[in-house]
Amino acid sequence: MTVPRIKVSDAAALLGVSDDTLRRWSESGRIGLESDGRRMTVDAVELAGLASEIAAESLLASVGPKLGATSARNRIPGIVTRVLRDGIMAQVEIQAGPFRMVSLMSREAADELGLEPGRIASATVKATNVVVEASPNLETGA
Predict the structure, then answer these.
(1) Which of 43, 57, 133, 141 is the most exposed place for a label (fewest CB within 10 A)?
(2) How far apart are CA 44 and CA 132, in angstroms?
(3) Structure pTM?
(4) Over the chain, what HEC string results?
């Protein structure tokens, strides 16, 4: 099985950095880049490792409510950007880096949590309800 390779521009977008930053990281030995004859690419497995490393180093990882022991692993910290309330329900939007997370909850819960634009909050995603889609258009091989 051939390990897929990803174009530098797509890899940079996935990491939230510029192409130039990815090239500088390659020059410093942080990640390897190769030419496929037409363009520079990165090994997808190596990119996944770097993505995990960057996430662990991110300041965003240290933001958000500090909770006690919990089984939740998919906690995504961000800032509340919008809260729409009606009689019974509330729609809460959180901007977490480049990602917009939307939650529907009871108005009572939103009120109890004090959710308003500007409030730091975390979205927690239950792993059994996460839909995963593979994106073949980012791969240049395999």
Answers:
(1) 133
(2) 17
(3) 0.64
(4) CCCCEEEHHHHHHHHCCCHHHHHHHHHCCCCCEEECCCCEEEEHHHHHHHHHHHHHHCHHHHCCCCCCCCCCCCEEEEEEEEEEECCCEEEEEEEECCEEEEEEEEHHHHHHHCCCCCCEEEEECCHHHCCCCCCHHHECCC
- Rounded to whole angstroms, the Cα distance separating 54 from 137 reads 23
CA distance 114 to 82: 12
Tokens of 55: 């996430």
Each residue's pLDDT tens digit, 13-64: 888 889 999 999 999 999 999 987 889 999 988 998 898 888 878 777 666 5
Cα torsion 138, 58, 82, 133: sign: positive
Q: What is the spatial distance between Cα 83 and Cα 58, in angstroms, rounded to a whole number?
A: 26
Round to whole Å and give the CA distance between 23 and 103: 37
Structure tokens at 129: 């309800």
